[in-house]
Amino acid sequence: xxxxxxxxxxxxxxxxxxxxxxxxxxxxxxxxxxxxxxxxxxxxxxxxxxxxxxxxxxxxxxxxxxxxxxxxxxxxxxxxxxxxxxxxxxxxxxxxxxxxxxxxxxxxxxxxxxxxxxxxxxxxxxxxxxxxxxxxxxxxxxxxxxxxxxxxxxxxxxxxxxxxxxxxxxxxxxxxxxxxxxxxxxxxxxxxxxxxxxxxxxxxxxxxxxxxxxxxxxxxxxxxxxxxxxxxxxxxxxxxxxxxxxxxxx
Length: 250
Ligand code: HEC
Ligand code: HEC
Known about the structure:
Number of domains: 2
GO molecular function, one term: heme binding
Bound molecules: heme C
Order of helices and strands: HHHHHHHHHH
Keywords: Electron transport, Heme, Iron, Membrane, Metal-binding, Transmembrane, Transmembrane helix, Transport
Pfam families: Cytochrome_CBB3
CATH superfamily of the largest domain: Cytochrome c-like domain
Shape: elongated
Organism: Andreprevotia lacus DSM 23236
Largest sheet: none
Number of strands: 0
Domain Cytochrome c: 71-151, 170-249
Radius of gyration: 31 Å
Distance between the termini: 86 Å
Structural class: mainly alpha
């Protein structure tokens, strides 16, 4: 093989590649034209029903994962950035755009409760909870406050701890908190004959009738154990603290 025929072979390969690229591009344009003329749905038009819009865009929110803490504890910014931004970031489907005071003004005038009510239940093309059923109501409320406040409102996000706003509290976290604040004084040390946390031998006889029975006794008080251990909160919260202790003691 001489050098010149090798280089003309190389030239042929280059030409072949160029021709293929041109053919592919032409084919692509043709397909795109066919698809847009034949599908009957023109994305640029606003004639789709709101249901159709919702159905089309709903999955956008569904696949997102909200970062920034365990479920229930995420703040408005984290929820907005994971879920709501997919529509409200751009004003998609007629949603009030983030930071657009003129779009948010009339919404804000409806009041915080109406707005979060709509955001939780859904409102026209706005899917319930932005399409993410995993969000807690408080998380949606926080995202509403976060968005509305960026549009000129002064709503207060429900506290992340949840208790003050009556939101869902993670019982394990709450139980530990109460135990450390109230029960530890006796049950951490065994003071006054209290069964210690983690002392299986001390707990076994008390748990023979089940944890619920032991908790019911402790709510009423037993000898040196004052009613609810002196805890002033609800029975529900006392129970969370008791379970925190019992679960580590059997
Ligand atoms: C799939 C798109 C989409 C997603 C995701 C979405 N929204 Fe919306 N949202 C809309 C549309 C569209 C409207 C306007 C509905 C209307 O006024 O008819 C709207 C309106 C709202 C309103 C105003 C309701 C009212 O009464 O005027 C609030 C509040 C709201 N959204 C909150 C949220 C929150 C919070 C999230 C995230 C958890 C979220 N949205 C996610 C599309 C979306
Ligand atoms: C002032 C000390 C004290 C505090 C504070 C206290 N306990 Fe106790 N607790 C005791 C003593 C003492 C006993 C054992 C009473 C007995 O058997 O005579 C006991 C027993 C119990 C029992 C077992 C009841 C049974 O049926 O045997 C449970 C459950 C319990 N406490 C839960 C709690 C929880 C939850 C808290 C905190 C919210 C708490 N206690 C705070 C002293 C305390």
